[in-house]
Batch of 3 targets.
Target 1
Amino acid sequence: MRLQLATWQEVEAYLQRSTGIIMPIGSTEQHGPNGLVGTDAICPEAIAWALGERHDVLIGPTQNLGMAQHHLAFPGTVSLRPSTLIEVLRDTVSSLAHHGFTHVFFLNGHGGNIATVNAAFAEILSERSLSERSLGGQPNGDLQLTLFNWFMGRRGREIAKELYGDAEGGHATPSEVSLSWAAYPEAVKEAAMSPHVAPEGSAQCDALTFRKRFPDGRMGSAPSLACVEHGQRFLEAGVEDALEAYRAFLS
Amino acid sequence: MRLQLATWQEVEAYLQRSTGIIMPIGSTEQHGPNGLVGTDAICPEAIAWALGERHDVLIGPTQNLGMAQHHLAFPGTVSLRPSTLIEVLRDTVSSLAHHGFTHVFFLNGHGGNIATVNAAFAEILSERSLSERSLGGQPNGDLQLTLFNWFMGRRGREIAKELYGDAEGGHATPSEVSLSWAAYPEAVKEAAMSPHVAPEGSAQCDALTFRKRFPDGRMGSAPSLACVEHGQRFLEAGVEDALEAYRAFLS
Amino acid sequence: MRLQLATWQEVEAYLQRSTGIIMPIGSTEQHGPNGLVGTDAICPEAIAWALGERHDVLIGPTQNLGMAQHHLAFPGTVSLRPSTLIEVLRDTVSSLAHHGFTHVFFLNGHGGNIATVNAAFAEILSERSLSERSLGGQPNGDLQLTLFNWFMGRRGREIAKELYGDAEGGHATPSEVSLSWAAYPEAVKEAAMSPHVAPEGSAQCDALTFRKRFPDGRMGSAPSLACVEHGQRFLEAGVEDALEAYRAFLS
Amino acid sequence: MRLQLATWQEVEAYLQRSTGIIMPIGSTEQHGPNGLVGTDAICPEAIAWALGERHDVLIGPTQNLGMAQHHLAFPGTVSLRPSTLIEVLRDTVSSLAHHGFTHVFFLNGHGGNIATVNAAFAEILSERSLSERSLGGQPNGDLQLTLFNWFMGRRGREIAKELYGDAEGGHATPSEVSLSWAAYPEAVKEAAMSPHVAPEGSAQCDALTFRKRFPDGRMGSAPSLACVEHGQRFLEAGVEDALEAYRAFLS
Amino acid sequence: MRLQLATWQEVEAYLQRSTGIIMPIGSTEQHGPNGLVGTDAICPEAIAWALGERHDVLIGPTQNLGMAQHHLAFPGTVSLRPSTLIEVLRDTVSSLAHHGFTHVFFLNGHGGNIATVNAAFAEILSERSLSERSLGGQPNGDLQLTLFNWFMGRRGREIAKELYGDAEGGHATPSEVSLSWAAYPEAVKEAAMSPHVAPEGSAQCDALTFRKRFPDGRMGSAPSLACVEHGQRFLEAGVEDALEAYRAFLS
Amino acid sequence: MRLQLATWQEVEAYLQRSTGIIMPIGSTEQHGPNGLVGTDAICPEAIAWALGERHDVLIGPTQNLGMAQHHLAFPGTVSLRPSTLIEVLRDTVSSLAHHGFTHVFFLNGHGGNIATVNAAFAEILSERSLSERSLGGQPNGDLQLTLFNWFMGRRGREIAKELYGDAEGGHATPSEVSLSWAAYPEAVKEAAMSPHVAPEGSAQCDALTFRKRFPDGRMGSAPSLACVEHGQRFLEAGVEDALEAYRAFLS
């Protein structure tokens, strides 16, 4: 069930059955010559929506903006500062916990979000921990938070290795491009890329340094290998990987 | 063209033709017994996507979360504090201005966002104004910001008046419910509501007071009048209203 | 009764009779060639003080600074960023609520404050709403907040229409200049203005753009029509308009 | 000249003659049984206004709210957190520096503001210092900030010693009560107080602890000694003390 | 060379030879029955000081407080919220970059800091990236930031595996306890622990939940195996690991 | 007992005997030609450590960074903005109060910290005061905060006067240089200085203005008079001064 397509009474009924929720989180940033700006949001959203159709799991609205400062030298990138994203996640979790959700599972599509999302969890928990003394020695409610990166799932990793080997790379990867195309086949792009496999390096730098290191936006990847059919396999694998992680998280 | 479905090179090419962009912004909040939690995001998104398909206008990713504190006593509502939403909009506009966008048109679906979005504009412009002295008396770039509420468009207003008269109300209105159903016909809900037209009142209060005033979440409205066909009319009207406003904004 | 001229015991006694308070809020910004920089603070303050002398209503200290970024290209303007003003209002209301005030009525003299003041109300209420779950389903105290713009009062509007018609305009209006002069007759200014009625346009822009659009600071107004006698009429009308709104707010 | 009663052209002309300004800053807090809640704002305002009438010095609007957390257990106190007051002062100074003011002289009426105002100065200067490297080794403009406490002026101190000796005390002092009454003779209060001289102690504590230490709000003072005539002497002394300090600051 | 023991002229001279600096960062938190509260700060500090004595590398002051919210149910833990630590690191790096340092190498002793430190790097770089457009297409200075966890160094890992195998665990590990004791042999503690190897689990929770999971503060470790002699080996290995990483970072 | 060298059980046991703690706080900033960058942190730390060895007082970790913006034009200075330092102190005190500490005594080595530390105390107490209404009229716990500047202690002042007279000055004083050398005799520096006694002036300015006023970093001092033997006297005096102040604070 998608939260956006439910009524509040349906959410109320869901909370009787389960207090877990999956929240897709991505980014809006360049993904090389044939990758979509929305790739990092589209991938976890597509996985989450498929999962929510097949299983009784509530799927929250997608956080389309993430921490993408290193991509700002490429048009179309929209980045939240970490301090902003922390506040967004704090308000999101506060609202969900207010309704009685106890297990919030962020399904993430962007490596650049990982540090900030974990810092946000610590920010949220800091407040709760400091209030516990006045609560007489009991934990401040039951709130579990976790982050799962779809692109780190075992099944998806195996397919990527099989299909692309070292040409999977680190950004604008053929696996994520494929998955975004499976979600939006009308958006498949053709683009010449040279070299076939992009250079590797670190992304922990300012935007212009990043663009000097990675002139067309790709990092160590060969997304010309991407296709819709691959994307369908990644979608299926992603659903299985995420479901497994979500079930482990709930228990 | 949707930014999420474009490559950065396509955005670069678009910026040669136009420096305007439409950013849908909504909310995730209860919309009464038959309205969707995502209504306020779905409506401007549906209008923007249709507009972007028919005209050469870039449509940014939807801001799904808005200022919805007064709805927090209904399960499913996720609210950003105004201070958080201001930071989100500041980072969003900073990123867009960085790429050379000069006209950012927020297409809004939620009355509760209006004050905060305008405060965010003032926050962004404050920083620019204070930096102008050191720029030798020239305006700090060309940046125009505006907010357009789809539900205030002339064409849409006329249809709502014709179809519902006073039963349109102020929240969980039959017009927005219809439009969201037109976008997601699979999510049409049936729900008994009593009284037919909900009570009226002010929403400037805390969440529990709001729920006491508006027990099923509706404000002055009769959304049982909603239907998909109405929604299609609102969608068409919304595209025309928004396009007219956007063109006036650009010139 | 003015809070600034009362003792704490007098406030304590007042709280036994009433838990409402009127807080004047204005701005410090240019008001054209013959308008005072303090106009937006002086007008609501004068109305509030007169109201407080005639009726048993407590009048708080005036917030002299508001959101005036668009006027910063004119010397003398002092502007608070929206984020700062939100914090000021949050602390103000927190203090008042701490003492048991339940109805805080902001009497505003500046259109540029409206969005930020309403965002501040939402910021304050967000915190209260999120704390309600732990309070066992009861509203978090009784706190009502409202904003009343003296220049939108029915009586004042009618006088302005009668006296100035379309020459009232939007900023540095003859009505507010008159009212400020009635409060401080020693500060009446003479200044030649051309054209008689200033150009119209939008104020949602940076400071230098604003000054290009409105070279002498007026927006659509002809404040050379202002005089002390008019101001006395606006003062009387303002007291009636504000009192009516305040009484409606209390009940 | 009072900024609030000037036009922007008058400010523009003043800036040709001087780039200094006096900004009164006070607090809104209990001042014992016969002291006014507004005492700390009224005193520096009265001094500044008299000074501005007699000398060509621009007087800005009064900051009526200060840091008064320790007085919050007495009705009528309105306190800004230090973090809020720092932002208010930052925006105030930014606006003034934007217009070319180089010497901003805060005339303070409240001991509880001193730490925060000096922290605000450091906050403002931190930003300027960190930007200097990119400015090629030149100081970032000419901006001088200072705080002068009227109640620490030599002339005023001597009168207080002469009139009250040790009964001057530390809060709700007869000198400040007298000065506020000289400014507003209509607000003179009669109140029995026991003991004649209030107990002494530290104010660095929370509000309820403060009230336990100082049950009627006075700290070490005997404000029953206050009278309007004394206040007139303090006003004259305050003008001389402030003028001397301001002139030393400018040079 | 330790910054704290140098004069500014010595720093000036150093900057002619190198623009790199090592900044130790730790935490103040419980480390089980025989581990020191300062372990996480002591370990990187000891390594950095030894490295700075043997090589021409400047060592900055130690950041003694880190993100330790999950340890707050154990007395002595002092935790910074992530938002606070981000500001501390932002100011630290701003100051260093102001002096011309280009390579800032944080030598970390606490796993709980990793996410927040990386978020802080992104916060710092966001500001720099957004300013680059106005700099004409050149990167905003040369600023490289990295985080190295001494406990992840290859040499140290190998020793820990050799000495403790699986009993190394995740918190209050025998390796860190040993290293802290090598730095402060006078602080070696004796304490009975049961079970020998502590339980494992996740630390992403509030403080009371953490204490329920890990009653004596250890996570998966057997720090009764620690001794000073081991600590001396970890110190030597830590210097080599950090030096290697620092040299790779500079080039 | 030093917190950094204690186990959590030792802290738990200490809290049974005492709920007071001494927290050294300093700065990292230039101290003239022969003074150490870490002087302001080293001095209170050395005093606190000696005190903690001789008496049963818990000594917390040293806050090495303070508010040092005016020294930023000298290499090696690292400054926290006041807003950052306030957050650091807020989190520090929150953590300590959470464990039951009631008397937090900051032993300070830097004049530039005084305003900000006191503002931080007010920030912390503001939050506590505003929560007291809901606590039924009882103070919000027992929390006492104080700041003691070692360089203002009576015994130390007397020695400085005896040894240096007016050549003690205000920054990079012979007393603090001596004390830091007593703590680290290996760091004694030789440096020619001219004039013997540095010029005097105000430090409330930006960094480049400061450096113009004080070209070698000294303010009114003659630190060439410093020596280790003097430092040992200051250390002994500092321990006595701090202990006396701490005992007075506890009672």
Note: Residues 40 and 109 of chain D are 5 Å apart (CA to CA).
Target 2
Amino acid sequence: MQQAHTETSAAITPAIAPAITPAAVAHAYLAVWNEADSDKRRKQLADGWTDDARYADPLMQASGAEAINAMIGAAQAQFAGHSFRLSGTPDGHGPFVRFSWTLEGAGGVVGGGTDVVLLDADGRVAQVTGFLDSVGA
Amino acid sequence: MQQAHTETSAAITPAIAPAITPAAVAHAYLAVWNEADSDKRRKQLADGWTDDARYADPLMQASGAEAINAMIGAAQAQFAGHSFRLSGTPDGHGPFVRFSWTLEGAGGVVGGGTDVVLLDADGRVAQVTGFLDSVGA
């Protein structure tokens, strides 16, 4: 399909470090959600997310690395013994990455969703918009 | 799941006019893509989209109602005789709406995707991030 004319597409899709693939973004993202140590998560967030990153899904919202770290800790407490796993193949374009995940425990999958991540020009997570694809226990 | 603490969730999920449902957003959105008259599209965009709305999918990007109108016209020219149809059930939370679509012609479905729409506080389309779910002719 022909690309539409726009003077500001650069502002919409800033250059991203070529090493960053949708799969790498998804795996790093899920690693944060599966990291039980708050200090380690804080380090992961400091390295891979912007300080003012924003997160929103149907159940949780948080803004800023510290609030996001606390939010993830609260979610882990809610689903102790469960882990997030990548489902399907991540895709993306420009600064956007999309991937699906499942939340699994000893009893199997209890939920799943699809997250859309906006990366900044340095490839750090600036915004996450999550949706639920299935509802578990 | 317990809502995570955040001082700025209001900034992440501004109030939206209660009349606006994900389904209504999706149907209005697809109506713009299926409107062949550029002037009518311009009116639809002026009514339902912000002046500086941004659109990005793997094939097209545009910023501003005029560029988006031209982009849609170019896509329609590329797929003459085809129309966009809602697939599945739109969902959303806060200012975000997600829905899937197919592009169909006399020969059947030639493609499909999932779009995530960010609405402003007045319920107007401020940003669209599209992904392709299937590749057609």
Note: The helical segments of chain B are 9-12, 22-34, 38-48, 65-78.
Target 3
Amino acid sequence: MQFVFSFDYPHEIAPMNLKHLLGGKGANLAEMTSVLELPVPHGFTISTDACRAYIDGGWPDGLTVEVDRALTELEERMGKRLGDPGDPLLVSVRSGAQFSMPGMMDTVLNLGLNDVSVEGLAAQTDDPRFAYDSYRRFIAMYARIVQGIDSMEFDRLLDAAKELAGVDSDGDIPAELLRYLVGAYKELVASETGQPFPQDPKVQIRGAIEAVFGSWNGPRAIAYREREGIDHRLGTAVNVQAMVFGNRDDNSGTGVGFTRDPATGDQGVYGDFLVNAQGEDVVAGVRMTEPLAELENHFPEVFHQLMEIFERLELHYRDMCDVEFTVEQGKLWMLQTRVGKRTGMAALRMAVAMTTDAGIKLSKEEALLRISPDHLDQMLHPQFATTKFEVLTTGLGASPGAAVGKVYFTSEAAVLAHERGEDVILVRKETSPDDVHGMLASNGVLTSRGGLVSHAAVVARGWGKPAVVGADQLIFEGGGVRVGDNLIREGDEISIDGTTGTVTLGRLPLEVAEPPEELDLLLQWADELSAGHMSVRANADSGPDAEVARRFGAKGIGLCRTEHMFLAEDRLPIVRRMILADTPADEEQALEELRVAQRQDFLQILRAMDGLPVTVRLLDPPLHEFLPDIEALLIKESNGTLTKEDEKLLEAAKTWREFNPMLGVRGVRLGVLKPGLYTMQVRALLEAAMELKRAGGDPHVEVMIPLTISKPELAYAHAWVEEALAELGADDGLDVLFGTMIETPRAALLAMEIAEVAEFFSFGTNDLTQLTYGFSRDDVEGKLMPIYLAQGLLPSNPFKVVDEEAVIELVNIAAKRGRSARPDIKLGVCGEHGGDPESIASFVKIGLDYVSCSPYRVPIARLAVAQSLVREG
Amino acid sequence: MQFVFSFDYPHEIAPMNLKHLLGGKGANLAEMTSVLELPVPHGFTISTDACRAYIDGGWPDGLTVEVDRALTELEERMGKRLGDPGDPLLVSVRSGAQFSMPGMMDTVLNLGLNDVSVEGLAAQTDDPRFAYDSYRRFIAMYARIVQGIDSMEFDRLLDAAKELAGVDSDGDIPAELLRYLVGAYKELVASETGQPFPQDPKVQIRGAIEAVFGSWNGPRAIAYREREGIDHRLGTAVNVQAMVFGNRDDNSGTGVGFTRDPATGDQGVYGDFLVNAQGEDVVAGVRMTEPLAELENHFPEVFHQLMEIFERLELHYRDMCDVEFTVEQGKLWMLQTRVGKRTGMAALRMAVAMTTDAGIKLSKEEALLRISPDHLDQMLHPQFATTKFEVLTTGLGASPGAAVGKVYFTSEAAVLAHERGEDVILVRKETSPDDVHGMLASNGVLTSRGGLVSHAAVVARGWGKPAVVGADQLIFEGGGVRVGDNLIREGDEISIDGTTGTVTLGRLPLEVAEPPEELDLLLQWADELSAGHMSVRANADSGPDAEVARRFGAKGIGLCRTEHMFLAEDRLPIVRRMILADTPADEEQALEELRVAQRQDFLQILRAMDGLPVTVRLLDPPLHEFLPDIEALLIKESNGTLTKEDEKLLEAAKTWREFNPMLGVRGVRLGVLKPGLYTMQVRALLEAAMELKRAGGDPHVEVMIPLTISKPELAYAHAWVEEALAELGADDGLDVLFGTMIETPRAALLAMEIAEVAEFFSFGTNDLTQLTYGFSRDDVEGKLMPIYLAQGLLPSNPFKVVDEEAVIELVNIAAKRGRSARPDIKLGVCGEHGGDPESIASFVKIGLDYVSCSPYRVPIARLAVAQSLVREG
């Protein structure tokens, strides 16, 4: 196996496609050198194969020979020799993995300097100060990175030298003193390592290569890969390259540039440069940079050469590139290029523009792959307009977007403040149905308890309202909230970011760019590609939600949760009357009132989705969710302050409380226990559909039963629909499908039987995940998940990305068995995985018919479906 | 298809094996007639095929012709004709299904009587009173059963006749008046049906046959089949048989008999008879019966004939039989025989005796199949010694056996009463760890909340202590408990039956027969048969439990739950100190104390099971189970009565409380979150094993991790064992296996990966069922399950009998995948299904290596394993 490849090695395929072998940096250096023939300082890449071999079994056989041969070749090409006392060759050793890991891994510059060659450098540059300053920097860098010596020691010596010289800036230390400093550095190395500082450039290079290999498994790099989901087995490549010096004189310089504006996608000249400087100086912000356009004034020829290179890069990479370049004594050197990072807006606008660009001619498929879900997220939600603030605390980002407002601790106060015209952030330990009107009145919600499916999280996401939940550092005390030393009182302003989970004091500026007009076009392309494969529906529980969903391009409603209709301020008392009813007549009366109210709700939703399918899930949550908190009632009881009403509520709360509500009397089980409830809902829905149809509309109703575990249970529920249809005389062509959620492992395994009754399945992958893992999301996501992910006990959070192993196997089994019983069965996913691009890719593979997600995720899901199909080929 | 078979029809196989076709009664009548050639009144059977055809599509084509032909044949054989005015043939029409359903279905006697033949009967018997009394009974019976007329009307007329005659007894009504009564009965029928009472015997018979068919789907019959798990599709056969009259004169009589004592299994003459009586009189208990042995004095010839028949029946059926017989004018007629019901004791003793009986020569396999799990249950637990009591209320039978004692409502009071020497029944809403010492001091436990895996149920079963849980009619009020109008106060005596869930006031006598010596022999045969297939272990958490288990024949411990060690009165404070620890040092100190204590526990258990494997499950329940009830603390808080200690406990209770504890931080998750806890347990266990080994013992330790969901998680846990072994220098041949419970669907699906780390799997089918169904047993078993079973939404309670569909599929998948990764992986089941015979049969099919159950179930499981293997062939 060959480990070392010079930048102009004749690979059989374009080196830009060899990132797995050469790393990103190495691949692009080779591409620029051998394909584009741009001015790149010569060098070579040691492959990721070598790194993996090194990690598994130490320095690989034959690698020394290959590196030596490559160094000799490099010396020949550059006409310089390593360690040469006259004109030494200096090299950089840089890591470069397949995926960019900025700042995570190590680089050593100026290798080749030693006691002899430093003099050569001084002679060549006629600048001993520069030469010795380079040498001292090299020693300190090498000692830190390769030899693991604490850099504080070197800083201490440096400070001493400045003190001796009476100067403040490193650059003002005279050459004479730098010579001593180099000596002191070398002694420090010798005393720490027991060995003199290596003088042999080859030994230096070997050390640096090993350090780069080793940095792959440094704790920062591992943590970064965990976060980004990068495979730990990839390893890094190492690039050894001849040094060029942008800081040689005023005819030199260095800069970075972008072929288009990475913020907006506009064409033009974007970037920064510095005269007489090295790359680090541009990034570090020590000196004030000049806009790249100014380069034309300093070095007109170099500027035009660079512009020409920009054009060639874009045509070649068919994308926006960023570059690093250095000018050494008037000559332009390209040090790096890559496809550049960009904002969502820029990504979108460039992708569309490049499909019409005569040179680049992106296909629609390519354009679609250029936009990431994060890009869309940025465009669709408000964000903090600044990054300059102090984080107060962090919770779970439960509903994306940022919000600012005054803090209120009760829903009543929130509503009053909202009525006064204030921006409100509702801050609660957790929310309950009693808080719904307070949440509605708020710009954002912050809770100290609960996970990503807590009441606060689910309700907020449904409304697209920013929410941070489970911020467990918040301590409620004395009518306020304490976080460490900070006390937040009612009326104080805070800002929350529901995308990142960040909370900060005070009012930060927010911004949300209007999505550019290119968005509609791109999503139209996506839909064209997805047609006949998978469509995207929305989870929407009200007419207004349904309208938003339709505006975002939803092709129907995949999940209409009827419980949210029960929680409205004017409904909850009726629901409680139903639960508390002493007689069947009282219960019937309450149900009747609910039926009238729900029929109106359904009518609004069906109208908003006229012509498109609407899947209505019958009541799912356990009844105690509609009752007040039992603990508060018990405390009242012990205080003797229960009212008559409270007494009844307490009795009901005791009757309906459960040890494990997730696994208790909910879903269709509630329908079996209280059949009147479900039949009422079915009637309300079908009546609404009939009304719309009579008014000339085109309703498509899908009745969905939650939490099914057996075919007889579903057949039992089916009878309710049949009866209601018969009662209403609604068999005159009303389009009604009957189906079930598949959210218990049993339902998945018995899908063949269940499909004999169900005309569609909607996979509730959230509950399916909870049951497959034995995870209560509320309980494990905050406490346990971070440890499990950090320790590698799970590959990813299965509530964010659907579990490819067990959960997807169950979905796949259910899909196959369901289809074997009913070939035309409609299969979908409702639940949060339906809005997650990685999960969508899994569902596309299984060939499901639709995914359904919150209205605000619909554009992302539309994109993700198309991307998955393109990637599947 | 032939529907009608005379009793001597030449079937190709022995009619006794045709119960599915002829029903139990018909098959045995045919067997007695055609094979044994016993004196059986002639007749024929209408098959279950006819019944099924009738239920599906009404009276089957051709059935009338077949019945008519059979009736003609019957007339010829008996030399009598239906409706004959001289000497009429009378017949009975009786139901007889494949499985006995006593009292559930209909019988009509004396068919063939009409206005003409009644005179013939009077002439033949020279007893007009008898003839008209028979006719009046026939009309009333027919009217009730076939025509659905309320029998109250007939009773009213009968009372009038007695009043007119001035007599008290039906039998004293003179013939003349009976003639008028018959007339009145017929008029009643005519006015109710609009038709005269049918005079044509064939019409009468057709009506009776249809009534029997119809009674198969009567509500009582359906309910019975639900309870007994009998297939609703089987249908019943109908037997039409010539009547004989045991009530003809004093040379006649009727009786029932058993070929051995059904209570003890002893050989001898058992049964009852009555002179001049009909079968009903024996059963109804109107007249005092005589012991069967007395028959010899009345009818010596008949007696010896009967004894000879008994011998032939036993040899033929190779089992104890019961019979019904009638003597008509000195001639013996056999009316029915079947393999008789028996007590557990009798079943066991007869099975063993019949293997050595030279004539019967049962094989060991046959003998094993003769004993049902219920038989063993009867023998192993105390029962109420009477059936004469009034049921106060019923809950879930959570732990079998009966107990009596005085009621105490707190554990403290229970302990004090126990110390005074009283028998105690602890009555609580539900129990918690704080109640363990109170439970220990009680003879039985009764709770008003919770299901079969509630704290009370699990702890009581573990100790073999009777318990009734979830008796939700109990209302706690004013220091007592109310059930309807009854108030139970502290110190009142009650009796509970944890097998049936029955609760009654007062002290019932209890009995438990010492298991007969034959038990050991039989179970030894069972073990011989099971060797090399499946062994039975016990769930035992302490040395004494382990000793009991070993005495019951357990081949090791399949589940030692370490949490019960944490709940002992002297341990709980240490556990709480660990949870509340402010500093790592405090926590370590508490863990250290627990380690010392647990080592002792483990040593006792390993000693009791010396030479046999002991599977120890590391701590499973969530930590809040070791803390006091949070609601009580919250109430104290609101009252301002929290102590310092309470405050800390409240804080901890808040930290560790969970929305769904079943799905929260428990099992290995706890180990990941608090590694010190698990490593402490592993160390304590391995130290105990080393100590036993050093003392010359032979410990076999199996460390079991609960609730695994992924291979890396299990590997993480494995490291604790490796470390502990290394620390203790315990690699000198200590036999330690490492494995996991498979109780999440994910673990089942990923068994291939998990088996790379696990050397054994133990299926936790209780949790696996909860997760597969999305059922919290505590929440659904009391409230929902009865409805689900009654409505047929589930075939059976999946917590009692393992779900053959989904759960067994997961076990099967896991077994296959586990073996594919590790062919010699040991596979077992711990959890209650491991003691359920039906479930054991499923596990035997999959080829698991062992089941583990509570010590008191071990004999039943040993039997069930052998029976399954015999049945599998």
Note: The two ends of chain A are 32 Å apart (CA to CA).
